[in-house]
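Retry 2 of 3 after timeout on previous attempt. Resubmitting structure tokens to design endpoint.
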């Protein structure tokens, strides 16, 4: 093509008119021999001028034609000129994507993928993409096939055959087919691994939401289960190898480039967690550890590859957790903080160009929609789509978003996503930054159909849509009303029957119908009581729901309210003492023992409103009150009834303090030191038992002998009683000792002492509304066959002549608890040489103690009991720790004064301080002892009767877990932790007890 120097050719002018920015370079390309047959074809120039970048499109055509076999070049050119669908598609792609032009230059035959124009070609899905990828047998061939499919998607996109939502869905379907093909390649490479496991791939993020970009990390989570007959320990590593290989197939860069990174960092524990987990492991994590953002991410979870049944099971299992996320404390605030954190992390020099994360960007729309879904989707299943635009339509249809607002958001989101697609399509690179180069902006604007002044029109449209998003996002996302909606459904504060029923079911009430009846009884009417309770009940329901037994909490509240509702102080307590209402809710819903104690005398609820009310009373204070009550009573039975009433009240105080300390409240967190809780309970119950026995002793003596018994009489606490370690379900182990007063016949004195013991035991076990106190004297010399009461001389004679080593061991925790103080001290002086023998125990005695322990382990564990979960006699339980500590006391107590204590933990600490046991081992024993003690206390609190092992019922087991600090759904973790802690304690015990020299 020649022209007169200084004059432009007509071709140059036409090229300029058709939108070429470098007509001279374009003329040179058109002069290539390969394009000779179409050089002057007006159809070609017109079609090139319709593309986003005519120069780029022409350059791509030339490269493609030159790369094609000489025999096929003319076929390509003829088809290009005569077939408008191919022309529009091929040139449209070449004018928008330099990367796809590079692909066609490497694989020229792939232009044929744009020729067909069938219905299935216009709207392909996963089956069609799977068919296209079926021939891929290695990573390179998969990349080529993937790009061929991508070519067709991009062609439909740039030609306007599909909209942005349909394009995003096709990209997600192609990703699904690609993941399946990659997994098939991985399975073929490792058939043994494939046979060992069932592996499901769960798509997350935009792939899971069916709205993928051209270039984006494909977020996934892997879940696996063993194949039939395969152990989990073999299946999970096999699945991990398959998953890792699948990720590399997609992510690695080869001669054919890469597909996209497969990102599994949304899995539990992120990159620090295992790549593959079983379904139960996923659930355990989500139920105990997951944060709000993880539930938000799960909103888009969708099974895409691998075992379809397992994938469906995963979705079915996690979906309820997603739709309960809005009930988490501070849910809305958490999501808002996440959003602000994203914006804050954008570099200042990029924030104005950030299409996705900047203010008014794509993430604003997505976050607002997801927040509204999670808040309202718990009760409206129509909102539970993982696709942003579908969810937005559902929110508008349900009235959660104004229709005009939704339409504006929809339009803005589509525009911004189309911008994002076109930016990424150019070089197939993952970016969300709007380019700042003039050529890039021009091509981007033209790709969106802006032709008059592409750059100015693009910037204007972008700013307008971003402004709409920012305005509507702030209106929807930060609306203060959402805080209330996220915690209490609309109308719930008025407790309408329908709202209350839905809420009760969501909160886990086992019998919503019964709960509704209670609510109706509590809130109906126009009385002051009903008005106060209507205000309180919505909050109380939440507190009850935070327990293992909401039904019991609500029922208990109704009973207390029925008993006290007309007393002015009770109404004031509920109205004015916020802590009292929450404390009451915690106590009523945590198990049977505390509510039973309270409901026998509901006025004890006043304890919960007194700032000092939960502090246990000391022994001196209790004895003073008890003895005063006995002094005022008419007879022994009425006296001990008053004493037992004090005991009931103080047991309630102790249980309430223990429960509230274990659960925590909104104002005060749970006690971090479980040992402190155990010590407080042990001291409180021991002091209370001692005071109760002192009162019963005074009543029994007064009834028959007046103020003075013919014999001096003392009661010695042994076992947990003497060690200040009583639990809620413990009997009072004691020894009785007496010494005839001067001038009193010894037989008379003995009869009087025995009569007092019999009367005390009778009075403390009389059938009443108050819990009985069992006095157990079986640790006395000769056990049940020996006399119930002995004189000091009789004890001395027995211990000198007949005492066995186990009796000396039992005396380690002996301490006077009631009666004659001097006689109690004399008894302690008598037994000290027995329990702390000079020069320690002899080897024969040590062997005997070990033999007794071994025999007890083999004979005393109840039939059918799990030895790993029995708190008293099981592996690493109370017996193991106590015998280990007691052996050290008997061997070294004569030389280490710190060991001369009846308290197990105190003696263990003293042994550690004396260098008798390493600190780490002492800590292991202490942790196990505290945990086993708390398990026994928990069982009594939950079931209302003592037990040494975990309950079997799921609700009771959950209640024990809550007391021990485990959230609902984590009883498995509780049992695992118990076994782990006690297993370590058993190892220390075996070394220190059986192996010690």
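Retry 2 succeeded. Sequence:
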């Amino acid at each position: 093509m020649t022209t007169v120097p200084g004059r432009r050719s007509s071709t140059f002018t036409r090229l300029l008119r058709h939108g070429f920015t470098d007509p001279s370079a374009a003329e040179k390309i058109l002069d290539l021999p390969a394009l000779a047959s179409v050089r002057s074809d007006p159809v070609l120039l017109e079609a090139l001028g319709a593309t986003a970048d005519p120069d780029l499109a022409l350059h791509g055509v030339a490269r493609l034609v030159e790369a094609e076999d000489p025999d096929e070049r003319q076929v390509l050119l003829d088809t290009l000129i005569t077939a408008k669908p191919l022309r529009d598609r091929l040139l449209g792609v070449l004018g928008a994507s330099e990367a796809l032009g590079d692909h066609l230059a490497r694989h020229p035959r792939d232009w044929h993928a744009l020729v067909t124009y069938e219905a299935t070609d216009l709207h392909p899905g996963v089956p069609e993409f799977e068919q296209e990828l079926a021939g891929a047998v290695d990573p390179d061939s998969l990349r080529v096939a993937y790009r061929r499919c991508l070519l067709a998607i991009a062609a439909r996109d740039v030609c306007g055959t599909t909209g942005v939502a349909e394009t995003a869905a096709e990209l997600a379907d192609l990703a699904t087919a690609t993941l399946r093909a990659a997994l098939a390649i991985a399975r073929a490479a490792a058939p043994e691994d494939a046979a060992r496991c069932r592996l499901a791939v769960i798509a997350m993020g935009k792939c899971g939401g069916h709205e993928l970009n051209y270039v984006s990390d494909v977020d996934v989570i892997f879940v696996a289960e063993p194949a039939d007959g395969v152990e989990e320990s073999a299946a999970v590593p096999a699945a991990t190898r398959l998953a890792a290989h699948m990720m590399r197939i997609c992510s690695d860069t080869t001669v054919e480039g890469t597909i996209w990174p497969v990102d599994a960092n949304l899995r539990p524990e992120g990159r620090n967690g295992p790549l593959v987990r079983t379904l139960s492991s996923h659930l355990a994590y989500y139920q105990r550890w997951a944060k709000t953002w993880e539930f938000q991410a799960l909103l888009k979870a969708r099974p895409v590859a691998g075992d379809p049944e397992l994938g469906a099971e995963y979705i079915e299992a996690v979906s309820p957790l997603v739709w309960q996320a809005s009930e988490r404390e501070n849910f809305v605030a958490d999501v808002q903080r996440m959003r602000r954190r994203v914006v804050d992390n954008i570099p200042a020099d990029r924030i104005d160009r950030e299409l996705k994360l900047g203010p008014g960007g794509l993430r604003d729309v997505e976050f607002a929609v997801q927040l509204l879904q999670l808040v309202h989707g718990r009760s409206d299943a129509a909102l539970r789509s993982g696709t942003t635009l579908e969810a937005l339509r559902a929110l508008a249809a349900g009235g959660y978003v104004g229709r005009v607002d939704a339409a504006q958001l929809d339009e803005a989101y589509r525009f911004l996503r189309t911008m994002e697609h076109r930016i990424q399509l150019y070089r197939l690179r993952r970016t969300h930054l709007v380019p700042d180069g003039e050529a890039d902006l021009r091509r981007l604007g033209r790709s969106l159909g802006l032709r008059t002044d592409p750059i100015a029109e693009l910037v204007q449209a972008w700013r307008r849509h971003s402004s709409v998003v920012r305005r509507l996002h702030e209106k929807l996302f930060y609306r203060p009303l959402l805080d209330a909606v996220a915690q209490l459904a609309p109308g719930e504060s008025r407790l309408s029957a329908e709202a209350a029923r839905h809420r009760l079911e969501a909160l886990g009430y086992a019998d919503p119908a019964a709960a509704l009846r209670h609510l109706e009884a509590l809130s109906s009417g126009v009385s002051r009581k009903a008005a106060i309770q209507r205000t309180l009940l919505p909050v109380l329901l939440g507190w009850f729901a935070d327990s293992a037994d909401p039904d019991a909490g609500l029922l208990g509240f109704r009973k207390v309210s029925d008993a006290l509702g007309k007393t002015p102080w009770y109404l004031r307590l509920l109205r004015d003492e916020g802590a009292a209402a929450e404390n009451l809710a915690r106590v009523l819903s945590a198990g049977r023992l505390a509510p039973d104690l309270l409901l026998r005398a509901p006025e004890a609820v006043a304890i919960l409103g007194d700032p000092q009310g939960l502090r246990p009373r000391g022994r001196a204070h209790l004895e003073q009150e008890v003895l005063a009550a006995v002094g005022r009573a008419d007879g022994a039975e009425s006296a001990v009834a008053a004493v037992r009433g004090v005991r009931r009240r103080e047991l309630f105080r102790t249980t309430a303090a223990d429960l509230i300390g274990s659960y925590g409240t909104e104002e005060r967190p749970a006690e971090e030191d479980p040992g402190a809780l155990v010590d407080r309970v042990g001291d409180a119950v021991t002091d209370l038992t001692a005071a109760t026995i002192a009162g019963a002793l005074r009543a029994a003596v007064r009834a028959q002998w007046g103020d003075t018994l013919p014999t001096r009489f003392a009661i010695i606490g042994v076992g947990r009683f003497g060690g200040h370690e009583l639990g809620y379900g413990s009997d009072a182990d004691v020894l009785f000792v007496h010494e005839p007063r001067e001038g009193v016949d010894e037989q008379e004195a003995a009869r009087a002492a025995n009569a007092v013991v019999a009367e005390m035991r009778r009075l403390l076990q009389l059938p009443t509304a108050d819990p009985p106190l069992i006095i157990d004297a079986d640790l006395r010399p000769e056990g049940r066959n020996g006399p119930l009461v002995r004189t000091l001389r009789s004890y001395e004679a027995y211990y000198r002549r007949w005492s066995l080593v186990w009796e000396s061991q039992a005396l380690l925790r002996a301490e006077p608890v009631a009666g004659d103080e001097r006689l109690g001290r004399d008894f302690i002086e008598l037994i000290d040489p027995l329990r702390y023998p000079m020069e320690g125990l002899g080897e024969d005695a040590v062997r005997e103690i070990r033999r007794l322990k071994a025999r007890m382990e083999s004979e005393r564990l109840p039939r059918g009991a799990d030895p790993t979960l029995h708190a008293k006699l099981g592996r690493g339980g109370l017996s193991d720790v106590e015998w280990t500590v007691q052996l050290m006391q008997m061997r070294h107590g004569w030389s280490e004064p710190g060991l001369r204590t009846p308290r197990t933990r105190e003696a263990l600490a003293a042994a550690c301080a004396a260098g008798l046991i390493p600190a780490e081992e002492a800590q292991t024993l202490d942790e196990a002892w505290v945990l086993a003690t708390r398990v026994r206390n928990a069982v009594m609190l939950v079931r209302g009767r003592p037990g040494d092992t975990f309950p079997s019922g799921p609700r009771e087991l959950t209640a024990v877990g809550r007391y021990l600090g485990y959230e609902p759904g984590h009883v498995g973790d509780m049992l695992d932790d118990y076994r782990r802690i006690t297993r370590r304690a058993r190892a220390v015990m075996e070394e220190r007890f059986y192996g010690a020299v």
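Attempt log closed. The CA atoms of residues 149 and 793 lie 101 Å apart.
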